[in-house]
Amino acid sequence: MNFREGDYILLVCEDRRYLKALTKDFSLNYKERVIRFEDIIGKEPGHSVNGFYVLNPTLEEMILLGFQRKTQIVYPKDSFYIAYKLGLSKDKRLLEFGVGSGASTAVFSQLAGEVWAYEIREDFYRLAKKNWEKFDLCKNVRLENLDFMFADVEENFFDAVFVDVKEPTLYIQKVWRVLKFGAPFATILPTANQVSNLLKSMENLFCNVEVLEILHRPYKPNPDRLRPQDTMTAHTGYLVFARKRI
What we know:
The chain is an alpha/beta fold. The chain has helices spanning 37-40, 59-66, 76-85, 103-111, 122-135, 172-178, 192-202, and strands at 8-13, 16-21, 27-30, 33-36, 48-49, 52-55, 93-97, 114-118, 141-144, 160-163, 184-189, 206-212, 219-220, 227-228, 238-244.
């Protein structure tokens, strides 16, 4: 589809990427290159204009370049894998609490039928809603500004759960109650001692436990001098997966 006023566009110039709203006063300068609204409007994605490639942004690019955040987000390298491990599909109902900026929720909502999300902090709650509205995301998400500990939810109600809070051990009994038997559990934790505490709390409640981390090492796409980038996003968190047992 050709670009229209109000669209979000991805501009790629050399190794720079920009996510911008296509408004009538839009213009962008990089070195000696300039690109304006009238250069883009009506064109198809993939065009090169004044040294800029003009593309539709993917969800990953919306999250990394367009989401506002107040804390470290769960990187797409982790959230996309978490979604895969949770086995999400349109007939599944996902529980998520500890929403933060809403980045992971945006990933999950693309795959799940419903997402029931809880965020205890009002500033994070408002930020998540603002990020979703900006890109017209998460229409199937029920977000509450509430500590999940006080949420009124039926037992054996959810098909999967993702937890992103500082002390998931405090919630593990309630999480077990609201999950269906055999349903997958996932969480992300920054330190090894948090993982150890969680594993102890999961004994006799969950089975098929896995702990791993995902390292993302990009390369410079120069065919004559292919080599890794000078920096990489390495450890962002330990991922813990498990299944509810009887």
